[in-house]
């Protein structure tokens, strides 16, 4: 996102920014993520998560590495970049479903927000340093070197994962009795999704709400990211990519760490008492995110020449520079709060054999929104002659329903969690009796809380 203006010039070489075409380029990567996630999410619920993760990292590395060999001269260069971005998107699409399925088995419930907090903080730190490195290399014409470095690092990560990553036993951290049984015996959890479990669990109220909400939340985030950097780099502000990158290091990185790690621990503490607290924290993060993004285009920034826009010290001499930095800190922090709570909720309201599938369905809808965001923003900027303030208000209004949907989820979340725990308790009994030669238990024995039958 930070280098869109430079990348546009690399492709067309005429010092003109093509917002619609660049929106399609970014959208292509996210749409590749959506398609890949659907396939890999289902496979993650059946096969080795380690093996699938290695394939995904390889695709990302290959997409980045091949970018460095892009032939110059539009339209060949643009088509080549579309291919490389698509390859990267296919790899990225499988990562989150695999991680959600893997951590559901590898981590206890009391540690998951902290893990996702560390993961999100690491991702933001890497993205921040990657941003400043890419900004420097792109600005001085060494953009091919950036893609070589990024691809090489990913290939090294793939080797490390192959050596050290271990495959956990499926279902071993989903429910207390089931965990004790699986960890103390050689019994294997081999349940697969069927029509009954899909209907009773995946199409639960909270899952449906989360699916729909993701569309609105990620739409506004994608639109904001697509517009913020060109807005700052264009006339009359002229803040250079390097200065933007430094702002991200100073404000964005601490915000990501604060939101991910600090609120990760807080979320685990409150989530252990009642999972509704996780929903409340998500509602808070969405509302704060919306307000922060609006403020980016409301705060009057100091007009700068291109030379002044490259002077980070000069930027901090203006109050608006500090205010903008505080907004960056807030945006990164509340995104951390959102991420460390959403994943544990999805894990709690779904069966072990559905983790990758549900994650991929949610990711599919979110990435479609993520891909549409730049296209919508690019189109509006094209027709309104680059009026960022007007475009921001038009598009950001699309994200309002997200918070209201999570408020609705407060009504259903506890009953959806209880349903999963009843199914897993029944399966624990079934696995134990099957292992001792006793007939299987019919899943019809599962009952809802408001029924008068004996509860399991």
From TrEMBL:
GO cellular component terms given for this protein: plasma membrane
GO molecular function: carboxylic acid transmembrane transporter activity
Subcellular localization(s) per the UniProt record: Membrane
Pfam families xref list: MFS_1
Alphabetically ordered keywords of this record: Membrane, Transmembrane, Transmembrane helix
Membrane topology annotation: Multi-pass membrane protein
Major localization class: membrane
Protein name per UniProt: MFS transporter
Organism: Promethearchaeum syntrophicum
